[in-house]
């Protein structure tokens, strides 16, 4: 139970109270503390203080001090609070946390502060007289938030108008494990998930927070598999950008990872962060050929893409045997007037040009893995191209099934470009079946270029196809101009399994609050998706701050495996041990981290981007900044990291697994080394920014190679 306090006349409260410390969290307002994932149940430090006055001399932390006040006699009290930065003093009308109310505070914005002992700077610092009875005890909470500036302190003063208090009996939390939180009171001031404060949040500027049908499309019943069999003729799938058996220097594999194009816009571009990082515009191809001034003027957009003199190995573009480079992937709606004239296309009015210009910046981006810009989103795919492909597929689908399907929505289309041989699409459509039920179609298709026609494509010949006659036939679509007359086919051995088992492998050591959060998140994933085809494998390097196996047993998980190891923490060895415990080679391994927030569609996303013998998956996670949360996601895409990695176990074993010899008690680089071998084995690595996929902010404090802070002195 919370500790009790002696209440002295005209003095600071003293004897002992429970003190919980939440470290390494930015912001100076108490509201910032409530956004902390671990607040209020899982602090970094649990201790006691003798009085309600502390000054630990730290930066970027929050405090929660709570307990009971037990007056000796009836009387009227006033309470006051002083702090740098903000603080709040809450008092209950009795011993029940549910009856707590705010009686005094310093600031709400994080910019307000007082000097030590300065109780009269703001009118909000001093409470109204509060009547207390000696026959009762009163629950209280003191919350304090400090940023990285100023002289931190917080203290509560009391003024007894009539009488004196009694001496209470103390208790402590020293014998409890970090994840034992049943005794921690929750109240309006401090509640898990801070859901009581949700209505007070300002709307965040991240477009990614807005609902998108992709996020829950996995809940839609899937189409009958027999209805999509043999809709398209089968064809060999062998993209030219695969580097099987190609000698790759150490850590150079990421130069051979290409990005996919996405339709419709998934709003993964971090527009709300561009005030801090404008690399999207600096790295844009159009910015490199235009003067800085007047970037968006009409004149500046009437510029054609400059020719390159050599092959860029950071792009999937290829040079044909004749030496003509395949470069352009502009669609008709984004081409300049001069380009359209060369192709025999229609001229645009000034109004059309102005309306369509904003799309150009997105569609001019290359598919190379840009390691310099961490706020840009997924590459955008032209609507005209998508509509063309979908229309052809729907015609084939209804031809096979007697016309029973109607297209409701194009939910998601992902394109992996190979301009020499053909383009691979993941097509996800919402269909109406026989006018009675809605079904989900999610299939890979291949748009194969005819060998005899590929030389006539616009991408090879910038002046346009030599065989096209605009006088004898209507203007073709932009997509058909670019790709000639492609053939839709079903790529062999490129079907994804909708119910394959996924094993999340996580090595841990003494990270109780994060382990507990991970387990809770996985239980929530199971509850919300009803998908039982995943397994949690925790490899525990002798943790002593919680009973990891007990926490797994008590959680509502579909299945789990607990592996106990001794010695120092070794990430590579831990991951390898977890994979070795998996018996089914035709299941998916997801090498994971503790500090991850998963979207509800994570299982579906992993499954459809992993194909045995063909595809591995390295989703790009958004790394949240200090003080940021999934509800207010300020941060950047982790474009360099490949530590979150999905791959079939058979493929993982075939490439030799983790490098446990070179990467023992250190980590950093083991993901790039693994990537090198994955690519050399002939696998593609699918690389996409995944909506609402976050890496929580944390410092190195309290991790396997660091030491904890000292607790504040009384």
TrEMBL record:
It catalyses: an N-acetyl-beta-D-glucosaminyl derivative + UDP-N-acetyl-alpha-D-galactosamine = an N-acetyl-beta-D-galactosaminyl-(1->4)-N-acetyl-beta-D-glucosaminyl derivative + UDP + H(+). Gene3D superfamilies: Spore Coat Polysaccharide Biosynthesis Protein SpsA, Chain A. It is found in: Golgi apparatus, Golgi stack membrane. One of its GO terms (cellular component) is Golgi cisterna membrane. Its EC number is 2.4.1.244. Residues 455-475 are annotated as: Disordered. Keywords: Golgi apparatus, Membrane, Signal-anchor, Transferase, Transmembrane, Transmembrane helix. It comes from the Eukaryota. Signal peptide: none annotated. GO terms for molecular function: N-acetyl-beta-glucosaminyl-derivative 4-beta-N-acetylgalactosaminyltransferase activity. PANTHER family: CHONDROITIN SYNTHASE (PTHR12369), N-ACETYL-BETA-GLUCOSAMINYL-GLYCOPROTEIN 4-BETA-N-ACETYLGALACTOSAMINYLTRANSFERASE 1 (PTHR12369:SF46). Belongs to the chondroitin N-acetylgalactosaminyltransferase family. Transfers N-acetylgalactosamine (GalNAc) from UDP-GalNAc to N-acetylglucosamine-beta-benzyl with a beta-1,4-linkage to form N,N'-diacetyllactosediamine, GalNAc-beta-1,4-GlcNAc structures in N-linked glycans and probably O-linked glycans. This is Beta-1,4-N-acetylgalactosaminyltransferase. It comes from Naja naja (Indian cobra). The gene is B4GALNT4.
